[in-house]
Write a structure and sequence with these properties.
CATH class of chain B: Alpha Beta
Order of helices and strands of chain A: HHEHEHEHEHEEHHEE
CATH topology of chain B: Ubiquitin-like (UB roll)
CATH superfamily of chain B: Beta-grasp domain
Number of helices of chain B: 1
CATH topology of chain A: Rossmann fold
Strand order of the largest sheet of chain A: 3-2-1-4-5-6-7-8
Low-confidence stretches of chain A: none
Distance between the termini of chain B: 41 Å
Helix content of chain B: under 10%
Distance between the termini of chain A: 38 Å
Mean pLDDT of chain B: 91
Number of domains of chain B: 1
CATH class of chain A: Alpha Beta
Shape of chain A: globular
CATH architecture of chain B: Roll
Number of strands of chain B: 5
Radius of gyration of chain A: 17 Å
Number of helices of chain A: 8
Largest interface: A-B, 42 and 23 residues
Mean pLDDT of chain A: 95
CATH superfamily of chain A: NAD(P)-binding Rossmann-like Domain
Radius of gyration of chain B: 12 Å
Number of domains of chain A: 1
Structural class of chain A: alpha/beta
Oligomer: heterodimer
Number of strands of chain A: 8
């Protein structure tokens, strides 16, 4: 019989999530052996990073530049008023470490450029993308596709959230959906509850993929229109001429 | 003909009161966007009856449901 790599303390910590219909011990071990990049870690990426940390993903890498400002505090759950005016990433990382001593938290205090994204993708098992700009989202998508690792894009506007789950080489990627970055303002209205909900669903998809539990939303876009209370899933088709994933 | 509309995010205020729109027969996705005064350059993601549609010249039929998902971001 194979030895379990989880310590008794870890098994106690994850007791409520190991069992029928949730995670197996093997699945929990797979989480422990996984590395995930989350960028950025504001309204959506913050809850995603928090949930992955609490769930026991072995290495959580967060990337986010800039200082925390007051309007961030309607949704950025990793921060607090004590972080206002300070670079947020170090404090966010410290908070995550207080939540689970069994997880390694790596902090990057800036948004990855092309080279960073490629290097990070090469040492990660999955990327969760939560930046506000299409330029950054498409950069992370490209890095994930080139590295052949799953990619989850979480996005929001107002009280609407969307999630796209990409399996490179098999499903549509973000570039298939947006061949050209559409006009988009970085500072848009959003309420924290939809950010948290969308970020948490992104974390759930990551946990399913990494642990082997459940059915991931591969190749689909999930939308939650909070204004109307409508949930929809749309199957995305690959674009044969996609500049990112064609030929992968 | 009458179609059903689901306009999300920033477009929600353009949704007619009963969620439907009268169009002349043969109207396309592009025609519908123009009828709703939606910036067609800005919006790239549509579904018709729950399936992704990339062809804005697609002719809609009575009872079709058109969803328009404008760009959304993170942060």
């Amino acid at each position: 019989m194979r030895a379990i790599s989880l310590s008794p303390e870890e098994l106690e910590r994850y007791d409520r999530q190991i069992g029928p219909g949730v995670l197996s011990v093997d699945g929990q071990e797979r989480l422990k052996n996984a590395s995930v990049l989350i960028t950025r870690v504001g309204g959506m990426g913050g809850p995603a990073a928090l949930n992955l940390t609490m769930a026991g993903v072995g290495r959580v890498i967060i990337a986010h530049g800039g200082k925390m400002i007051s309007p961030d505090l309607n949704r950025q759950v990793l921060g607090s008023e004590s972080v206002l005016g300070k670079p947020r990433a170090p404090d966010f990382g410290e908070y995550l470490r207080t939540m689970n001593r069994f997880v390694e938290v790596e902090v990057i205090g800036h948004e990855p450029d092309d080279a960073d994204a490629a290097a990070l993708a090469a040492r990660c098992d999955l990327i969760i993308s939560c930046p506000p700009t299409f330029e950054e989202r498409l950069r992370l998508n490209r890095a994930a596709v080139q590295a052949g690792i799953p990619f989850i894009d979480a996005a929001q506007w107002g009280i609407t959230g969307t999630l796209i789950v990409v399996k490179p080489g098999e499903t549509a990627c973000l570039k298939c959906l947006y061949p050209e970055p559409p006009p988009f303002e970085e500072f848009f209205p959003v309420i924290g509850a939809i950010s948290s909900a969308t970020g948490s669903l992104a974390a759930l998809e990551a946990i399913k993929i990494l642990s082997g539990s459940g059915k991931p939303l591969w190749g689909q876009m999930l939308t939650y229109d909070g204004y109307q209370g409508n949930v929809a899933k749309v199957k995305l088709s690959r674009r044969e001429s996609c500049a990112c994933c064609a030929g992968v | 003909m009458k179609i059903q509309l689901k306009l999300m995010g920033v477009l929600k205020d353009k949704t007619p009161e009963d969620g439907s729109l009268e169009l002349v027969d043969g109207s396309t996705v592009e025609d519908t966007l123009r009828a709703l005064d939606i910036d067609t350059e800005r919006v790239q993601v549509f579904t018709v009856n729950g399936s992704l549609e990339r062809d804005r010249a697609r002719v809609l039929a009575e009872g079709d449901e058109l969803s328009v998902i404008p760009p959304v971001g993170g942060g």
